[in-house]
Amino acid sequence: MSTVEYKFTYEVVDSPAGLKADDAALLKKAQEVTVNAYAPYSHFRVGAAARLTNGQIVTGTNQENASFPAGICAERTLLSTAASLYPGVPIETLAVSYNSENGPSDHPISPCGVCRQSLQEFEQRTGHPIRVLLSGLTGDIYIISQSTQLLPFAFTNDELK
Ligand code: THU
To answer: Are 77 and 61 in contact (CB under 8 A)?
Structure first.
């Protein structure tokens, strides 16, 4: 028997002042677009903003539905928008933030399991890692160098070949 360790490292900065200017602007965009979320059920507004390798900025927000499973997270809204507007263009960096009516937005949230799976496939199909910035409206900012680090043992289309 052997034991295998899985670990990854990420960076933490305590304010946007610790980010490069383009990353700080991207995070600000993710925070700003939370107003566009449609979240009448959870009152949890998520905003995502991505910088593509062609320099374009794409955003997404969560869009809920009275039939709860029909709702879609901000990250997957963004991925669909990016792939529709700029097919084949990789995402360089993705920022995610939120604004909750139920509590403070002072710590990072991270993508749900379904979104991690979708991020994995987006990385794979574009052949490019997606850097991820996670933060509330205030507080620490996590910088993760590749979204697939959030999904060890991912099921991928390699298995379907
Ligand atoms: N949500 C996102 O949009 N992204 C996440 O990373 C976590 C959760 C949304 C789904 C739902 O509309 C609301 O937040 C509460 O779960």
So the answer is: yes
In total, how many domains does the chain have? 1
Distance CA 112, CA 118 (A): 10
Interval 61-82 mean pLDDT = 98
Compute the Cα dihedral for 119, 142, 131, 71 and give only its sign: positive
Report the 10 Å Cβ neighbour count for 158: 8
**CA-proximal residue: ligand 1, atom 4 (nearest):** 73
Spacing, Cα 74 to ligand 1 middle (Å): 7
d(CA 6, CA 156): 18
Average of pLDDT values for 53-78?
98
Check which CATH number belongs to the domain holding 37 and give it: 3.40.140.10
Q: What's the pTM?
A: 0.97
Nearest CA to ligand 1 atom 6: 111
What are 111-150's pLDDT values in tens digits? 999 999 999 999 999 999 999 999 999 999 999 999 999 9
Residue 70: give the domain boundaries.
11-15+28-152
Does ligand 1 have an atom closer than 6 angstroms to the CB of 78? no
